Amino acid sequence: MDLTQTLRDKSALSAAALLRARELGVCVRCCLRFADVDDPDVYACSEDKLVAAVEEFAQESDVQGFEALEVSGCICCVGVLNSSFHEHVLADVQRLAAEKHYDAKTFALSIKLPSVVLLREYALLQFLRSDVENFPRKVPFDMKDGLKSLIAPSISAMLHDAECANGSEFAVLVDIKHDESANEVRQIPAIKKQLEGTRKRSRGPPPVFDGFGAVSRALATLSAMPETVKSPPERLATTPQAVITFERDSVYMQGRYLKFQRGLSQTPWVLDGERLGESSVEECIGDIALPFFQGSSYKFHTAGREDVDVRMLGNGRPFILEILDAKKAYLDQAEYDQIQEAVNAANKGSVEIVDAKSSTKDYFAGLQAGADSKKKTYCCVVWSEGVLTPESIAKIDAIQDLTIQQQTPIRVLHRRTQMTRPKVIHAAKCEVLNKHYMLLRLATSAGTYVKEFVHGDRGRTNPNVASILGCDADIIQLDVESLVDAQ
Fold this sequence. Notes:
By secondary structure, the protein is α+β, with helices and mostly antiparallel strands. The chain has helices at 3-10, 15-24, 28-34, 40-43, 47-60, 83-100, 116-131, 143-158, 189-198, 212-220, 281-293, 333-346, 361-371, 390-397, 450-455, 465-469, and strands spanning 106-112, 163-164, 170-177, 241-248, 251-259, 269-271, 274-276, 297-302, 311-324, 351-358, 375-384, 400-407, 420-432, 437-445, 461-462, 473-484. It has three domains: 3-247, no CATH class; 265-371, Alpha-Beta Plaits; 375-484, Alpha-Beta Plaits (2-Layer Sandwich). Strands 5, 8, 9, 10, 11, 12, 13, 14, 15 and 16 form a ten-stranded mixed β-sheet that branches. The radius of gyration is 34 Å and the shape is elongated.
């Protein structure tokens, strides 16, 4: 690339204006931004090449006195666009990449600039537009875009040629701070007034009034340069610092689980700070799957839940395993099959999963919403105080789309709102075991409390099996047999 020719073709600044900016302590890349050079490839060139091109451009214009000044603490960008700074950034990215081993295919580069660069750019441009004849009034090339041009290609190489793309599920975050100049934004009248107002607050963390967005809005309201703000800005003695972090969106695995063991809770069961039960369905699946993704932790999401003493049979209950900070996100189906085999082998007789595979945010979002629209079938052993007769059994078998009114069960009042919910018993079928016991199969709307439908919950569920039989009834065992049309 012929950089000098680029300046000839695109520069909106004269060589004299470029020289004036350099004399004030403006780095070469900020000079190019003010000159309306908007080619990202130009900013990716080394400082030596850029300075040489600007110097040649000045000499062609018979401008004397241009020198290759060392401007490490640029009065505008505070050093953000300086080569030594971005080399430190890249060194930190390289260290993290070698340490974490993410398998990113794309990455989003998110840069958080110190808010003071907005003020310094504003103050500098106000000065140059009054000091230099015909200085452009167009908004300069974006500072973030300039830095991205500098570091994105190298970061791509460090991440095994991952493509820099907006909206990627993997992000490289560059949070830049400059302590020496940080308090300057507090001299903007609007910011100063807001910050003084927070001193009267006595509770909670103070709002952030000097952040990037707040400073941008405050500058937009200025009609004149405040006397408290130095224009042009002063030179700096220090360079900025950056904190680099990697973030990955959650990775999702979906499947369906079957629970064969009574007494196994769906999630870890903690009561009054004390752990009850040795394990849970969540741990049976998540603890084995997590190492495959090399994640930091996981969350378990399901379409509804069964009680700890209830088995989940049939086609199983849909679940999502959400993996946080997965280093390995792109598992193929063979690896999901391995996870399924490992879970099933480790939990024989208690938990089994089927149809394990990669999932998406869309499936995750619809999982619980879909649970409320499903029909469920149950099988339970019911005790009747009275003798079961053909007439009483016929009453149960005759149930067809029976609407019941269920108040929140007493046993869950501590965690659910007290209210009455209409539910539907779509069908019922009895099989008498002896005079006082029967096998009852039910098809219900989602969210029906089957135990309470059997015994009535002290009159809080009506009608109920006990009221239909005309005697006390209770449930001995309960299994979920299927979720009709389960995902």
